[in-house]
Specification:
five-stranded mixed β-barrel; elongated; OB fold (Dihydrolipoamide Acetyltransferase, E2P); BirA Bifunctional Protein, domain 2; alpha+beta
């Protein structure tokens, strides 16, 4: 009977093991072959790295004609120092085994320094485009943001939760919600984990979630997706929304340091300039309108406003970020607490980063009667919210939280121009495949 190992070794390369004179043996993809006449450079692509190797018929047992760009192979060789190559090393090949070969050539120039195709073409051939080192590196940075976020949350005693994505009611309401049939009932794809986050602070105190969010908005902009990844947290026993804002600032500092420590290769490859996060300036919504020289007759910020406010923060505070708080209550969700100083304002904020809103958050209503009264103002029947109101009825601590769009955050960390560049397989009004 065959025995299966408990912890089989994944055959991949560790750069720390590739020191001068060391034997190398690992599986990889042939990224590029450069014929130099008497020898060839064979550029190898692993799950993270691009490594230079040298093929010569004198040192290698197999003919180079057995391989081509896109072939998957297992190589053997010897490492030698080479300052001009990536990571300062190259491998002299002594043998390789062919694991698979492509049936056709790539439709894109994967081995070029820059992919050099339109975004539409990139998305049409997405599974090929993502083999390009720069394209792939974007999603290693996204991994780093998620890992740094999770590490910070756990360190601060937040509990990770996983909430339903098929729900009976939309957290944000409105028309931007995907409807579906759930057996004999009407159901929706979750616009946010908001209701469940609030529920969980009653027994966990602090919670966070990393998961998909769905918005049925017919946008065709550089900043919107119909499915994105949300980084959400909710925390109990806050004094006011400033506790949430301070927690976000500390978390973002941690994420930036985490990226510096763990993703040096990708940051260098992408030429990323990470922000320095010290004290993040904060203004109220109407102070923001004054800064913009606008009258107080609008209820939200438009994209141009966000760009100009970030320019103001950079010029006056040296910050890539700015908080805008106390938005008009009429334009914030029904669960947002009204300001005690002015019922027309909400204890709600946005965080803008390099010209784009990446976060919405604030303090939530925890008092049952206050929540019922606000629902009446919004024209929402309490029975429409089902079990959500039970959390207020049976008691809630003062609490607040926020949601961050991962793709928007990564887009601005890397100074990319379109949010589709930070989504592995974007879902928008034009893309449902791949």
């Amino acid at each position: 009977m065959q025995k299966i190992g408990v912890n089989p070794k994944i055959d991949d390369v560790k750069l720390s093991e590739l020191t001068d004179g060391a034997a190398a043996e690992f599986s990889c993809c042939v990224h590029k072959i450069r014929d130099m006449g008497t020898f060839s450079f064979v550029i190898l692509r692993t799950g993270r790295y691009i490594i230079q190797s040298v093929y010569s018929p004198d040192s290698c047992k197999k003919p180079i004609s057995d391989i081509c760009e896109g072939a998957y192979i297992k190589i053997k060789g010897t490492v030698k120092e080479e300052k001009r190559a990536n990571y300062g090393i190259e491998i002299t090949l002594s043998d390789f085994d062919v694991l698979s070969v492509p049936a056709e050539k790539y439709p894109l120039h994967v081995s070029n320094r820059v992919l050099d195709c339109s975004l539409d073409t990139n998305l049409e051939y997405r599974s090929t485009a993502l083999r390009h080192p720069r394209e792939r590196a974007v999603f290693k940075i996204a991994e780093g943001v998620v890992s740094g976020f999770r590490e910070y949350m756990l360190k601060e005693d937040f509990t990770e939760i996983h909430t339903p994505k098929i729900v009976a009611a939309g957290a944000e309401g409105g028309a931007n919600i995907f409807r579906l049939k759930y057996f004999d009932k009407d159901a929706y794809l979750a616009q946010s984990p908001q209701f469940y986050k609030q529920t969980c602070v009653a027994f966990f105190d602090r919670v966070f979630e990393i998961g998909p969010v769905f918005r049925a908005e017919k946008h065709n902009s550089t900043r919107h997706l119909n499915e994105y990844t949300g980084l959400d947290f909710e925390m109990a026993y806050i004094k006011d929304m400033s506790d949430v804002m301070e927690t976000e600032a500390a978390m973002l500092r941690h994420v930036v340091e985490y990226l510096k420590s763990n993703y040096e290769f990708e940051l260098k490859l992408l030429g990323a300039e990470l922000p320095v996060i010290e004290d993040i300036p904060a203004v109220t919504f109407f102070e923001a309108l004054d800064i913009l020289g606008k009258t107080h007759n609008q209820f939200d910020l438009d994209p141009t406003d966000e760009v100009r406010l970030c320019q103001y923060a950079k010029e006056n505070y040296g910050s890539d970020f700015i908080f805008v708080s106390k938005f008009p209550a009429a334009k914030r969700p029904f669960y947002a607490m009204n300001s005690p100083e002015d019922e027309k304002l909400a204890e709600s904020f946005d965080l803008l980063f390099r010209g784009l809103e990446i976060t919405t958050g604030g303090q939530r209503i925890h008092d049952y009667n206050m929540q019922i009264a606000k629902l009446e103002k919004y024209g929402i029947e309490p029975q429409e919210l089902g079990a959500y109101l039970d959390i207020h009825k049976y008691g809630m601590p003062p609490h607040g939280g926020l949601g961050i769009g991962l793709e928007r955050l990564v887009m601005k960390l890397l100074n990319l121009k379109n949010i589709r560049q930070t989504s592995l397989f974007p879902r928008d009004i034009h893309h449902l495949d791949p």
